[in-house]
Amino acid sequence: TTEVSDGIGVRLNAYYKETKDLLNERLTDIENTSNPLVTQMAVMQNLDFGFVRGIDLSINTRRVNNLQTSATFSFQTAQATGSTDRGNSRISWLNGELPRSINPVNTDQPFTGNINLDYRFANDGPLEILNNFGANFLTTFYTGRPFTKYAETVSNPFTAQTSIPVESVINGARAPFVFRADLRLDKTFRLMDDKLGVNVYLDIRNIFNIKNEINVYQGSGRADRSGWLGTDEGKSWLSGQISSNAIRTNPYPYPLSPVTGKAFTAQEAAEFYENNPTGYGLPRQITAGIRIDF
Length: 294
Known about the structure:
Strand content: 35-45%
Distance between the termini: 35 Å
Shape: extended
Structural class: mainly beta
Number of helices: 3
Largest sheet: 10 strands, antiparallel
Order of helices and strands: EEEEHEEEEEEEHHE
């Protein structure tokens, strides 16, 4: 840590770590006297290796004029021949050659940043009501997680997929950038000759209600659509759904929209199904509470 000026400290940390002999699945030939049809089995072997390297930068200031700031920025590369102990299972069972080249792991996050602003009064507020009042504003942002890009012709949630042609190297594509801002307001009341503290707070997570896409379809790279419905195969499938539902006697062949209250069309129902809420990060969340210290 270095104090670059009065009240400002900077800390720089660099690291490098290699890992080897990590477990992964591999298919091996066996001699099975009880069942000659079974000639192979999956075994776990010490196959994978990789490395992590990066730089962390932290900047902190003392509280000046009621304001204290801090910021951290991380630049990191995490690559390996496999992300999990069963990441190569499909390749193994298809008698494929296990990858020996290193690629980004599933959790690789090249850039991460946090900026924190904390503004508060002690017993010196310009108004008495502002004594022991504070506000904390935190922003978090980072690059999206990597994924292997599939062709949109098979990356869909509606039909079975018998083959998966890829359009990138392993984890060669990335989900969108993520940004979130949180706000916390709190005020402490001192009671019983300062023996009891009552802190009243209001927490607002994701104050701007940003739809951060964290789990995406491997065909489109987006959380709200797979891209398959726009392909020739998808259009043909959707046309078949429209035809089959046209003969229904039920006046509402599809569920009612939670937004409009009207019945979905076939395309709206398919798009609603694709837009999986688990693909997004935390929505705006407001919490109020009281904390007692004694």
